[in-house]
Write a structure and sequence with these properties.
The chain is α/β, with parallel strands linked by helices. 44% of the residues lie in helices and 17% in strands. The protein has two domains: 127 residues, HUPs (Rossmann fold, 3-Layer(aba) Sandwich), CATH 3.40.50.620; 44 residues, no CATH class. It is built from six helices and five strands, in the order E-H-E-H-E-H-E-H-E-H-H. The longest helix has 23 residues. It starts with 5 loop residues before the first strand and ends with a helix. Bound molecules: adenosine-5'-diphosphate. Adenosine-5'-diphosphate binds next to strand 1, helix 1 and strand 4.
Length: 178
Amino acid sequence: MTQKRVGLYPGTFDPITKGHIDIIHRATRLVDRMVIGVAINRDKAPLFGLDDRMEMVRTEVGLMEDLHGCTIDVLPFESLLVHFAEEVDAGIIIRGLRAVSDFEYEFQMVGMNDRLNPEIETVFLMASDRYQFIASKLVKEIARLGGPVTEFVSARVAERLYERFEGSTQSSISAGAD
Ligand code: ADP
């Protein structure tokens, strides 16, 4: 029996964008099982809590078609990436690569992870040119300012973004009214 290929796609997913979805879809062609690791990432002070980010990823993945027979699990993690990869038996770490701006950080990370566990290979995928420029950070900024974001995220995620910013605007208004 051939060994199943397990891939780990880690990220913050704050929130999941069409760029992430494109990478997930491409990665299903490479692995039999994919773990999407949602980083707790307290340092980045995510807009959405871990449960919300995981739920959004699960919903979007649940609606994806043609996963090439790949099974996908969405799990949280806070440990060192290579330790988490070992824990879930992943031989491949999947990362998406956008413009040159991603390269330096990713280059360093691959080097360090390779020292920590040379058995784990990092694979970089590029999203389709329609989605390559999408970054969660900019999507949040546009939504915060009331701009349209459905070109970058699903309608469901867009709804969550507007809800979140509506809530914060209202609470800051009521806080200011005291
Ligand atoms: P992280 O905090 O690890 O950067 P992100 O959720 O921002 O988490 O991104 C997770 C992974 O998805 C990273 O490898 C990132 O480069 C990749 N990614 C995010 N957006 C895109 C996109 N539009 N096209 C290609 N890759 C992307």
